[in-house]
Structure formats: C-alpha cells, structure tokens
Design brief:
Chain lengths: 256, 255
C-alpha cells in the first residue's frame, strides 16, 4: 500500500469529521436562537448537569485547593508563606484549576452520558421517531443540553473556586499554622476580578464544548451497542482534549 | 382514484452500494400497499426516503401531488404532521411514560394541552386494547407485543392520513403477530388512512394488504392485488412467498 495514499486518506477523513462537526455546531447554535424552546427539558438538563455534578466537582476542588497550599508552603520561606500560599491558591483555583478540572470531571460525567443516551436513541430509531412526530431532534435533544452546559458550568466553577479556596484555608490554618484572619485577608487582597471572570468565561466555553461533543457523537453514532460505546469514548476524549486546548487559547486571549 | 404517494425513478446509493435503482411506485388514497422483499432489498430505505430521513440521489417523491424532495425543515415538519409511523423496534421514547409517548405528537406537534392530550392518549390506548393503567408504565416495563401496541397507538394518535408500518410483526410470536395485524386493519379502517407497509412476513402481508409490491435489488419486479401474489407467474415472487432456498433469487451471503 502506498504510504502517501494512506496519509491522504487519514487526512481527508479528518477533514470530513471537522466539516461535519462544524456544520453540526452551526445548525445546533442557530436552533438555540429560534423557537420553539423546550423549557421543561432544559430545566431537567440543568439539574442533571448543575446539581448532580456538585459532589464530584466539590471533591475535586477541595483536594486541589489543599494540595496547592501544601505544595506552595514547602517552596517559600516561613515569613512569606502565609501571603504567598493564599495568593497561589486563589489565583490557581480561579484562573486555571477551577475551570479545567471541573470541565474535565463534567466531560467524563455528562459528556459520556449525553453521547450514550442520544446514541442509544439513534440506534433504536428514537431519533427518527422524533422526526416523524414533527419534532426537530436538534431542538428537542441538542439545544436543551447546550444551554444547560453553557449556563451550569460557570455556576459549578464558581462553587469549585469557593470550595478550593476553602480547602487551602483549612490546610493552611490547621496544618501550616497560619492565622485565620491573616489567610482570609491575604486571599481577599489577591483575588482579582479579571481572574474570576476569565475562569467563568472558560467554564461557559467548556460547558458548551462538552455538550456539543456529547450530542455530536451521540447523533452520529451507528451500528448498535459497539457504536454507542465508541461514541461515548470519542465524546469524552474529544471534549477533554478541546478543553485543554481551548484553555490555552482563552488564557492567551485574556492575559497576553 | 387519486394517488396519495407517488415515487418516480428514485435512486439511492451508499458509497458503492446501490440500494434503490430507479424505483417507481404509487399508492392510491385509502389503499393499503405492502412492499415485500428480502433483507437488504431497499424496503426500509424506501420508507425513509419518503419521510425525508434519507435524501434520494435522484428521482421524485410526491405526496398528494406535491414534490417533497428538497423541502425545507418547516415545510417538512408540516408534511410529516400528516404521517404516522410504526417502527420495527417500536422506537418508544424510554425516558417518557407510555401515555406521554402516545400523546407526543399531540403535545409537541399540535400543541394540545397536556391534560387533554392525556385523555386522548388513554382513548387511543383503549383502541389498541390497552388499559389506562398501562399509561403510567415506562416502555422498558412492557413486553415486545405491548410495545408494538403502544407504538401503533402513537402512530395513530394524531389521526394521520398516511401511516407507515415497518415490519409490524417482526419479533412477535404468531398469535401476537395476528393480534397486531387485526389491530392494524381495524385502526386503518377507522381512520380511512392510506398505508404503506414493509414486511417479509407473508401471513401479515396477505392480511393487511390491498395490493402487494415486490422489491428486488432496488427495483419493483412485481405489483398486483394481494390475492394474486400466490400465483403471480413471476419466478422471483413465487420463490419469495413460498420461502424456497432454490430459485432465481440468490441470497447475498456476504454483504
């Protein structure tokens, strides 16, 4: 087999995927702006994404905040420690670790569930059935998930920021012997508006990406149980990679 | 009699595989046409082309004399509101209780209030022989035969003019299959609907069909009144309806 032909085929397949996904994203987003809207379904997705992800995201955040504090304290002299630990925890959580880790956890939890649910509906002809009942699957299945993803992830990240900083506070005041008042005032001094806002913006983008990937791979899955399994894997992997990639791009846009 | 559905010269290929090869057929208003044919002969693709789930490569598909190939989303939705379809695996929405499945077309398609839609769903369930208590169950709690009945109820709940049946008796025991056939005949008569069914179950075909058409390799090779199918004089049809392994039709053992 010709090596060039192989490279060409892989590249063309990649371009096909990118084109197909771009079309899917554009059609889906345009449906977000046009009625009818399914408020009941959107609310259900919001509860699923926002409320039921709280334990996972909260646990991730508290341990991340604690570990940040622990690592930072070992790197600074005792005098500078209190202020710098508080600063690193506040910056790290709000700017990077809050949105990225919450995004990755939700990608695993929600992106997979979306791909599996829609994929199963696809292979059992439920998506076709929606069409025949005069209901657009984009509006009924995709739009509620996109809206819920883009609105709920920022809220989750806000909670993750607070819990993460609290984790740093708990470790700092109990294990490292910092004063409660000193740690809190140092945190306040170093918390900046742009850091929090950039983190929440990232979260909204990640939420949209997770939902888009979950729905795209679900709706394009084919061929029974194996196809649904593959769609689920692809949804999680592609969403995770895109989150890390877009995190860099967004950081560059905000701070460079 | 006027034609309700007309297909002219419809072709569709997937990659190198030609599934429909210049298919033409028509269904008269109020008539029941059953398409028979082996697996992979293009039966399901034909239905999906008419519904617009698959876009044909060539040819014209008219419903009530109006061209439907290339309709925009909204016009397509309006056209589909006059259709009902019973899917092969029933394709019930497993996140919704039975009554909401049946009422789906009423609530989402016609904008009828949930309470009223629920009453009509219960009435429709009664038509297919299911009690009101079934309405609160979820599809996964039903047997295959009951799922088919609910699927039938969902297909007829909006009182459509045209109903499609995709292998209505596949996967059912012979008695339940006959029950479903009876229900189909009864419901269609009540509604006065035009129906198009695909099946490879001959007892089902002869029970629900006015006319039968046979599809082979993406073409129509025979069409006639249902009673003529048993002595059609066509070797292909003969082999199929009598279920013989030997004959002009070679089953593709490798796709």
């Amino acid at each position: 087999m010709n090596l060039l032909a192989l490279v060409g085929r892989v590249f063309l397949a990649f371009l096909t995927q990118v084109g197909q996904f771009t079309l899917f994203a554009l059609v889906s987003l345009s449906h977000c702006l046009r009625p009818p809207f399914y408020l009941r379904l959107t609310a259900r997705q919001m509860i699923e994404i926002g409320y039921y992800s709280l334990p996972v995201v909260g646990l991730t955040a508290i341990f991340t905040g604690m570990v940040l504090a622990l690592q930072t304290s070992s790197g600074f002299s005792e005098l500078a420690a209190e202020s710098s630990v508080a600063m690193i925890v506040a910056w790290g959580m709000t700017r990077e670790l809050g949105p990225v880790l919450a995004g990755l956890m939700v990608a695993g939890r929600i992106g997979a569930a979306m791909a599996a649910e829609i994929g199963t509906m696809k292979v059992t002809e439920q998506v076709d059935a929606l069409y025949t009942l005069s209901t657009n699957p984009y509006k009924y299945l995709v739009v509620p998930r996109l809206i819920a993803g883009a609105t709920m992830l920022p809220l989750l990240v806000l909670v993750a920021d607070i819990i993460g900083i609290f984790g740093g506070y708990v470790l700092g005041t109990t294990k490292l012997g910092f004063s409660e008042h000193g740690y809190i005032s140092a945190t306040w001094r170093h918390l900046e508006f742009i850091g929090v806002v950039s983190g929440l913006t990232k979260a909204a983008v990640f939420g949209l990406v997770i939902a888009l990937m979950g729905c795209y791979h679900g709706i394009h899955s084919r061929g029974g149980a194996q196809g649904v399994g593959k769609a689920t894997t692809n949804a999680v992997v592609s969403a995770s990679i895109l989150i890390l990639l877009l995190n860099y791009v967004l950081t560059e846009m905000f701070f460079a | 009699m006027t034609d309700k559905i007309t297909l002219e010269n419809v072709s569709k290929s997937f990659g190198r595989k030609t599934v429909l090869d210049g298919l033409s057929l028509s269904v008269e208003k109020g008539q029941s046409l059953v398409i028979i044919g082996g697996s992979g002969s293009g039966k399901s693709v034909t239905l999906k082309c008419i519904l617009g789930l698959i876009h044909p490569d060539r040819g014209s598909i008219k419903v009530d004399g109006r061209e439907t190939v290339g309709l925009s989303g909204r016009e397509r939705a309006r056209m589909l509101s006059r259709f009902g379809m019973l899917f092969q695996g029933a394709a019930l929405f497993d996140s919704l209780p039975v009554w909401e499945n049946v009422a789906f077309g009423l609530i989402e398609g016609q904008g009828i209030r949930r309470k009223e839609a629920r009453d009509r769903a219960v009435d429709t369930l009664a038509q297919v022989g299911l009690g009101a208590d079934v309405g609160d169950l979820f599809p996964s709690e039903l047997s295959g035969g009951m799922q088919k009945r609910v699927g039938l109820a969902r297909a007829i709940a909006t009182r459509p003019e045209i109903i499609f049946f995709d292998e209505p008796t596949t996967g059912l025991d012979p008695i339940m299959a006959d029950v479903i056939n009876d229900l189909i005949v009864k419901c269609v008569k009540d509604l006065g609907a035009t129906t198009l069914s695909i099946t490879h179950d001959m007892s089902s075909a002869s029970k629900i069909a006015d006319r039968i058409a046979m599809l082979y390799q993406g073409r129509m090779i025979w069409e006639g009144p249902a009673k003529d199918v048993w002595n059609s004089g066509n070797d292909y049809v003969d082999q199929f309806v009598h279920g013989r392994a030997d004959g002009p039709i070679r089953m593709a053992l490798r796709a």
